[in-house]
Amino acid sequence: MTNRKSLSDAFYETLKDIYFAEKQILKSLRKAMAAAQAPDLKQAFETHANETATHVERLNKVFGLIGKTARAKTCDAMQGILAEMEENAEAFGKTEASDAVLVSSAQTIEHYEIARYGTLRTWAAELGLDDVEKLLAETLEEEKRTDALLSAIAERESNPRALQMA
Question: Tens of pLDDT along 78-128?
Fold first, then answer.
């Protein structure tokens, strides 16, 4: 007998995945703030930590809207990304490349989140979960803004002429 899974099941499983990821990201952002050298990068990490706390609250609302208990499911992908970020922060310490590797790791995290939230938003629409879709779309836009900000910081940090103009 085949175990029949639905899009609703996939949505719930993916929701548990990103819930776990967001909680882990929140812890890592605090470490990244401490490791960052450039003031604008520290600020970006602090701002995103506050946003991430809001993302967790939104996810709790989403669980409620679909009538499910807020539960986390271990996300091996995010654990790997965060472990790599920690390894890079340690390996590069306070070198001239430390902020660059932090930004790179942070953008990897953002891209994962963008992929997850994009998928969840699309599935919410397909499932007719309009209120859920709006909440997920809001988070998705915040993740995209953070990614764009990190790109701008990376460009400034790697361009000495831009730093002189700032």
Answer: 999 999 999 988 898 888 888 999 999 999 999 999 999 999 999 999 999
Determine the Cα–Cα distance for residues 112 and 107; give it in Å rounded to an integer: 9
- 141 within a domain of the structure (yes/no): yes
The answer to whether the CB of 16 falls within 8 A of the CB of 68 is no
Which tokens in the block code for residue 135? 């909440």
Containing structural domain, residue 86: 7-165
Tokens 């900000």 belong to residue = 149
CATH code, 94:
1.20.1260.10
3-state SS, one letter per residue, for 20-60 = HHHHHHHHHHHHHHHHCCCHHHHHHHHHHHHHHHHHHHHHH
